[in-house]
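name: query_chain
kind: protein
chains: 1
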Amino acid sequence: MHELMVAQNLLTAISAESEKLNARPISARISCGSLYAINDEALCFAFGAIAKGTTCEGVILSIEHKPTQGQCKDCGQSFEVELSDPKCTNCGSRDFELLAEAPLILEQIELETASNGTSYN
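structure:
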């Protein structure tokens, strides 16, 4: 279950940023490629479990899965690969290569300052 490792890394990054800014984390948004094999439910569960008793307890995670990209070997067009019918959206060719998968990135952390309750991203 690599979601636990991902959750631990997220917890470390979110905790460090909130400590640096002396603020409480409220939510976080991550993105990753659709083939990255992240199970949203498992990640949220793992994060919630390891965040108990920390400043990240109660943080809401949102996960965006970026589409897989391909490049047609016939026309050179880059396109989003439809996994159920993989072909170039420009010329219809099935001769293409998959481009590098979008990495897992911590895109945004919403924080609330302790002094005045103001939240910022």
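note: The radius of gyration is 19 Å.
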